[in-house]
Amino acid sequence: MDGLWLAALSGLIAGGTLLVGAGLAWFVDIPQRLVAGIMALGAGVLISTLAFELVEEAAEAGGLIPVSIGFLGGAILYIVADWLVTRPRKRTSVPPPAPPTVAPKNIAVRRGARLAGGTGVAIAIGALIDGIPESIVMGLSVLQGGISIPIVAAIAISNFPEGLGSTAALKRGGSSGRAVALLWCGIAVVTIVASVAGFAVFQAAPVSLIAVITTVAAGGLLAMLCNTMIPEAFAQQRGLTGLWATIGFLCAFLLHELTG
User: Fold this and answer.
1) How many CB atoms within 10 Å of residue 246?
2) Model confidence over 43-86: pLDDT tens digits?
3) Residue at 97 is within a domain
4) In terms of domain of life, where is this protein from (predicted)?
5) Which of 57, 130, 140, 185 has the most other CB atoms within 10 Å of its CB?
6) Is residue 116 classed as helix, strand or coil in its secondary structure?
7) Domain encompassing residue 29
8) Per residue in 130-159, pLDDT tens?
9) How many CA atoms lie less than 13 Å away from 61 in the CB half-sphere?
């Protein structure tokens, strides 16, 4: 029972930083250039996380074939999910209703539980796709002697810019606060459940299966970074994007080396 609670705590910590980033972006008017800098920094952290905490350890435990299958599968899964959500909808023959002569600013846009598409949803999809296998890995790590500080810390740190960047984009796109809150609370709950499942369900799973699950997270993560977070950051930061990403990578790498 103690192990289940530790697994749930791991998921709560990792998922909680998603909520912190999302809440900060929604309630604080953060300059877009600063958001882009945080996203670039987070991209470096995520690259380090997927390289050292996910792919490297999966390869050592499960071998190259499961890692290759999972890594490519995660990237394809993200790209397909992103395309399904963000593809252009077919136009209908019915014309849209005429807008009112005078509309209160932002009231019509934010009414109901509407979720705008685009970059914000794409990052959220990436957070969900990589969050489930990452959380399973956190749950599995509890079996090896308690909460794995390097893994939980790296995932928690990398989740913050995902929540921040996605919510900032959703807010700019006109999403409702209710829809954004439901989105991130749902992802956070999935993170906790997946962490508990990793401890309870996958205890006897073969190492090759664990390697596939782990690298699905890494592949989806890398695809999301290349398609969404890095281009979004570069649009504002330009030449500084690489510097911020390098700093983020270095910080996560040092954390890995000092706590590993």
Assistant:
1) 14
2) 898 898 888 878 988 899 889 999 999 999 999 988 998 888 77
3) no
4) Bacteria
5) 130
6) coil
7) 2-87+116-259
8) 788 778 878 877 876 677 777 787 778 778
9) 19
